[in-house]
Batch of 2 targets.
Target 1
Amino acid sequence: MRKTILLALMAVVATTAVTAQETEKRDDRRGPNPEKRVEKQVKHLDKKLKLSDSQKEQLKEFYGEFNKAQQARMEQMRLQEKQDRDALNSKINSILTDEQKAKYAEMKEKDKEMWKEGHKGSGRGEGKGRGHGPGRKHLPGRGHGDHGGMDSFDGGTGQ
């Protein structure tokens, strides 16, 4: 009985440790903390180039400015995409009958729910609705981010 409890406890501790490591890796990839990302970039350059303290400070500034500009561009792009999507939906609705409009709105709502379900959690490929259909497998060495164009589709053969 004690062995069973001890094994169960060890399994819980191991699972918690693995989950924490995976979360940390995911956070590193996504870079939710811009300051941490800048520190990492400067540290990498320092390791390769042996930077002075003054150079490190300047690089932190440069990366900070760059990241702010990138964020602004991404936000502008998101807004433009939303406007383009809204314009497309208006055009589509302009040619549909009332019955078709209702069905189209329902379809869009279902797609929205599927998208939300597929993006639940904190990483790509988690949840339902995105990623792999029946027969789709990851190839060795390929992560969840490789769902691009037709080049990455293996037709369910796993090759």
Target 2
Amino acid sequence: MVIAGCVAEAPPPETSDPCHAGDCRIELEHIVRITDADEPGILPTSIVRIQETETGTFVSASFDGKQIVEFGPDGRLAGVIGRGGQGPGEFVQVHTLIPGSGDTLFAPDMRQGRITAFGPDRALTGTFPMPFGIPALVMPDGSLLVSAQISRSETIGYPMHVVDREGRVVRSFGTDEPRYRPGLEHILTRKVAPGRDGTVWAMAPARYVLERWDPSTGERLQSTRIPSDWFRESDEPTDIAVYPPPRVEGLWEDEDGLVWTIVRDADVDWEPPPRGNEERPFDLQEYNRLFDWMIEVVDPGSGRVLASRRFSEVLWHRTPSRILVSPVDTILTTVAHDVWKPTLQHRR
């Protein structure tokens, strides 16, 4: 049992408590089904990186990572952006996309070490360097938030960094005592989400502690441990051949100021895979069999869990989205994904 505690350097955001009597339930509202029926083979088949834009469209990197595909609110293909190559608006390897404010879109290209920006009309607006890996967020002022260890003497040990459009580290923050050791990425990195007033929510994957930071100053505004009778904190490396500890997969803040967490946890009927932990291609069916996904809604001020629900089917989440995506079993010639919006409903 994790002992509840709360340390707040500044008052947390005020939120209403819609579930004061514990009478709320998490539901998944089906938004749309996205398929590659209009362009067979264009969507990834395993790990899904679909993001929602401000205008309600959905974007994804293509199967080969050389294009961006955009789907309308009806799930039908609306357009394809870019092509393979190294020129302006061309890609070598795009895995994930970052929606920005004003319906802008940012495409990190891992192989070229750069980010390509597109406006709301999807016209090319610029390219800038990406020397420190794929950013997690584009901040309101246009800077980038990198949530990873940067191997430089002045940055190593800090889990978050503000990087400007020239590729320079402006500020490193996220811990009072910077430290680093290989193999502890689930302790020394952070899952992040945009908060109100330009702040950032952050959680280490292996710690059920909700933090709020001011990226403009590097100041920690809040640190709240979420009480839980199922989350087992562990600094052990993940090994699917043994019973795996929970890992925070993502978080986001909703319109009411409540924070949602999604955690990958061992399946309730977990059994070790027959082939152990040997190196092999990603197997979605095995992944789905080994893990469940826990979604919880948290009052960020007190850390109190307002609602909690376990799901047995894989649910992909990508910051800064508030949507979840699940693969759909279809005929072999069609790839399809369901898009869901998590909602908090009062029990009747």
